[in-house]
Amino acid sequence: MSVAALLLAAGQSRRFGTADKLLADLDGRALVTHAAGALEGVADRVAVVSSRAVADLLQPMGFRLVMQPPGQPQSASLSAGISAIDGSGATRVVIALGDMPFIGTGDIAGLIALRDDAPGCCWKDGAPIPPAIFPASYFGRLMALTGDRGAGALLRNVPPTMRIEIPAARLRDIDRPTDLP
After folding, report:
1. Whole-angstrom distance, CA of residue 147 vs CA of residue 64
2. Considering its fold, how many domains does the chain have in total?
3. Residue 180 located in a structural domain
4. Which InterPro entries match (predicted)?
5. What's the pLDDT tens digit per position in 93-144?
6. 152 exposed, middle or buried (CB, 10 Å; 0-12, 13-18, 19+)?
7. E strand or H helix at 34
8. Residue 5 and which of 42, 99, 101, 126 are 20 to 30 A apart at CA?
9. Angle at Cα 140 formed by Cα 35 and Cα 41, nearest 5°?
10. Mean pLDDT on 153-171
């Protein structure tokens, strides 16, 4: 069983203001490096980015990069990342977001420990939330998604046995400067 990781880090950060939120300082490091660090236990890591500065931070961390033009919908980033993984021999993919810096390596390990023939995810307030994991049989469905939504539609009916419990504080994402601790 070969697991790949996909870090989506190409968003527009509209609510953050003019600065690139993925480069914002969090405990002396760029925000995106925290999310990337949670994936360090996965050998094959791909990041979809639209910023050269973000790419320059992730490449030394061992990520293969997929450059995405700015302003693309989230589904385009997801499709580009899965396309880069498809055919690599990966039997599953963990999908994480670059603006979720409080997820840890143990959380990712919890997803990987789930049954390997079905999708799994975190769950918050009655809904699926990233990070999530998908078997290769879902790669085509992930690449076919459209619009500015991620894979949530494919996770709505995930049974409780395929959900991992993570404290809400670690499932926070950073959308505005006031979201930073």
Report:
1. 24
2. 1
3. no
4. MobA-like_NTP_Trfase, Nucleotide-diphossugar_trans
5. 999 999 999 999 999 999 999 999 999 999 998 899 999 999 999 999 999 9
6. middle
7. helix 31-37
8. 126
9. 30
10. 93
> Within a domain: residue 147?
yes
CA 2, CA 27: separation in Å to the nearest integer? 32
pTM, full prediction: 0.95
- CATH number at 99 reads 3.90.550.10
Whether 99 maps to a domain, the answer reads yes
- Residue 9 CA to residue 87 CA, distance in Å, equals 22
3-state SS, residue 177? helix
- By DSSP bridging, strand 92-97 and strand 127-135 are antiparallel
Domain that holds residue 24: 3-173
Report how far apart the first and last C-alpha atoms of the chain are (Å, whole number).
38
d(CA 45, CA 124): 25
